[in-house]
UniProtKB/TrEMBL annotation:
Gene3D superfamilies: Classic Zinc Finger, Endolytic murein transglycosylase. It holds the Pfam family YceG. Keywords: Cell membrane, Cell wall biogenesis/degradation, Lyase, Membrane, Signal, Transmembrane, Transmembrane helix. The gene is mltG. This is Endolytic murein transglycosylase. CDD domains: MltG_like. Functions as a peptidoglycan terminase that cleaves nascent peptidoglycan strands endolytically to terminate their elongation. GO terms for molecular function: lytic endotransglycosylase activity.
Amino acid sequence: MKRPLWAVVAPATALFAALVTQGCGADGRPVAEPGAAPLELTIPAGSSVSRVGQLLEQKHVIRSAAYFKKIATGTILPGVYAFSPADTPEAIYLKLHKGEVAAVKVTIPEGFTVKKIAARLKERGFLTDETKFLALADGLEGQLFPDTYAFPKNTTAKEIVAQMHAQFEKQTKALKLTPEALIVASLIEREAETDDDRPKIAGVIYNRLEKNMRLQIDATVQYILPEHKARLLFADLKTPSPYNTYLHAGLPPGPICSPGLPSIRAALNPEKSDYLFYVQGEGKGHVFARTFEEHRANIARIRKGGHS
């Protein structure tokens, strides 16, 4: 009995379709199972889809460069990427198309100077030379906001400075922060060890300024020294600089670090008191005094081992 043509063609067509589907399915599967370690790969600027597919296949991120070329119908952005072999080629292409480059987290603590920020960025691999960053950040001491950032690995020094300054502007926009208050906030940041002390120290600073007393803040001397000292010597207090508040009355010419929001808020909302002096206690925190005699007594008591 002669079978109809469709009865012969249909099974053959179905078989062919199954083979094609199976082939595409194999090429479209991830190279590895979930949990595979990510692989870092640099996609150079100007790379064609074919070249990117070859790189991905050579590094065993995808199974087939030809399959990748079929699905990569849009632009591919250059950069340093972190690919997981457990991702599908489609997911990998979307990452390249959106420019989701690998990011490295870096924490800039409160109280860091511009120089310390540059050193931290160099340590984390963002800078090969600190000179350019320091030049770009010139005049921005105190205005590079301390925070945890996630910068793409190919981020430039200019982009980092811009992002940190933009974060400062964003965080302080509603606070009506004056240049003088920012300087005070930086002093508080370097002096205070507890949040409770911040508004108290702010009050002392403003009280001394009102009475035209020199601030005599150790942190301003540390700022001008080449290296930080665990303990300042009497000779250090005579270091010539407009920032040295042992030698000059009033505020220093600019901030001495990047303060966090608690110190900024304390500078804007100082605690009202008649305190004029403070000294670090045995633990964290400071002991405050209204007169120099009371201050000297506090120092003597702390040296003896108690400040209650």
